[in-house]
Request: fold
Amino acid sequence: MVPPRILVLLPLTFASLGCGGPAAVPAPPEEDEVPGAVCTNRIDYTLGSETHYTAVYHYDEGGRVLQYAERMADGKQIFLVKRGYDARGRRITQNVEDGRLGIPHRDMTWEWDDQDRVIHTTFVRSGSELHDGTSESRFFFDASGRRERDEFFTDGVLSSVSHHRYLGGEPFVLETGRDTGGDGTEETVYRGFYAGGEWLVKAEHVYMNGEQIVTEDFTYEDLEAGHVSRRDYDAEGDGQADYVDRVFWGEGGLVERVEYDTKGDGVLDQSVDFEYEDGRIVSRTWDVFDQGTQKFITDVNWSGARLDRVARRYVPTGEVIETWVFSYGCEGDKPMDVPIAPIHGFEYELMTYPFLLHFEDRFGGFPEML
Ligand SMILES: [Ca+2]
Ligand SMILES: [Ca+2]
Reply:
């Protein structure tokens, strides 16, 4: 299911933490001893002119992330992720220590079947009285290998069950009913309609109390290629779009521009333009019209196929808001995939396509827990 996309201005989340004091110079990162690690990559992050963080990834021989740590300029560790893998290289454990605003300790496990599908996850939160607890998910598949049922538990008690029903037809309908409490009564139903069994053309979120039907309609410029040109989001199913996105494609199947009409009144509220060189993004321009006129540009520099530097600036003043500088101690292309990490905002700056529309991506690949 594709949630409505809400653009929020300037998420300067780190600013409130404040390093205080005079402008600090980034210190060389401390290299931890990580058993099994063979090399490290690093990101130096600067927010404004005063706040510096360093992130270091440690990789094993197979190129998997064993540890990811973020430190402040004074060396204090503020975020740590450790991952463990089974003999087949599949992630089975993750431990997070969050010294910032999050839940201090988070321990996760993933259990796989012999077809490389995750069938069971656990997520234990500790260290904050308010949010401590255990979440658990179990995923079940039918005889033909399709996802059939998901069960969710909170502190050992069944909290909800999702049933996936493959209704067929053209467009092909996948219906997911969510039963809160697992008492046999479904409170919400989601229906995805896939043209040719492949591309989402319509989505409905139905609240069974009759109160609301959220509807999304997708129009394609090129259905074969999955190039969507427009999404109409109707928040209450009255047939009037409340939010309209338009996507413009360029040569080589790259997204050149996305327009957001956040009130569905035909007036453009925000837009994002992308520029590419050799098929790689080099510039992202974000124009905002609905909260005063504002313009942000993200410049992306590459060194060969690798990210070298990403910097986001506020155009009217020229002020650089945040900068990511990448350095590589490892050969080849290693994953930088710790989506929960505070410094990972660069991924958002590089993202050009706003939707998840292909049927195969319906359940995603790997169930991350944040
Ligand atoms: Ca129920
Ligand atoms: Ca409406």
Notes: Residues 345-350 form the longest helix (6 residues). Helices lie at 345-350. The CA atoms of residues 37 and 193 lie 45 Å apart.
